[in-house]
Amino acid sequence: MSTTRTTAGTLRRAGLVTALAAAGVLTAAGAASAHVTVHPDSYAKGATDGVLTFRVPNEEDSASTTKVQVFLPTDHPVLGTLVTPRDGWTAKVTTSKLKKPVKTDDGTITEAVSEITWTGGKIGPGQYQDFDVAFGQLPDDVGQLTFKTLQTYSDGKVVRWIEEPQGGEEPENPAPVLKLTAGGGEGTAAPSGDAKPAAASSTASSSDDSTARGLGIAGLVVGVLGLAAAVFAVVRTRSARS
């Protein structure tokens, strides 16, 4: 077998390994950011006057998202909830009576928002939409808030983002979770330093996005290492034959 043919075979094998490794990493990056999430992913307990952004990506290739329902917890309610208008979408806000009223400096709160439903708009394949919700105060007696979400597509399919992690593993359809950390104060952990509720849909930050970017970079590193290995194999083959 000639040196040229051996070199070509070595390059093909190295290229195949590199492509498969990079494809696996990039596929994982896409999966990491495909579900409905809330941004930022953490706030201080009892934080006031902030904004929560619910990011809804479209996962279907041939259908559009036409309805989004976000359910807010009432056992640890989010007080003073206001919905930011979103072009093309109509928001319906549902309030519920609290089993346990909440005492505040402004009086006792007996009702709170329990559901927000957006309809009338469309999220096409390969697109996402951010829905902004301003709040007056977050609870200070719990470690996290779970916002179960239903996503309805134009073909009638409904994806239920309602599952909570069990045993440290992420479920198939995880619900958006907001972690509440120790500390507090007005405006603590406000997203992007912007006090306006109407944040642009492309500005919300996310740990999932960071993970996806990290995985993408890892894929590029794998590719570079694969090419370097191929070059090394070629040089070693030629040296051996010399």
From TrEMBL:
Low complexity bias (residue ranges): 189-211
UniProt keyword annotation of Transmembrane present: yes
Cleavable signal peptide: 1-34
Keywords of this entry: Membrane, Signal, Transmembrane, Transmembrane helix
Pfam families assigned: DUF1775
Superkingdom, taxonomy of origin: Bacteria
InterPro entries: YcnI-copper_dom, YcnI-like_sf
TM segment ranges: 215-235
Keyword Transmembrane helix: yes
Domain called YncI copper-binding: residue spans: 35-180
Gene3D superfamilies from the UniProt entry: Uncharacterised protein YcnI-like PF07987, DUF1775 (2.60.40.2230)
Region (Disordered): 165-211
Protein name from the UniProt record: YcnI family protein
Organism from which the protein derives: Streptomyces carpinensis
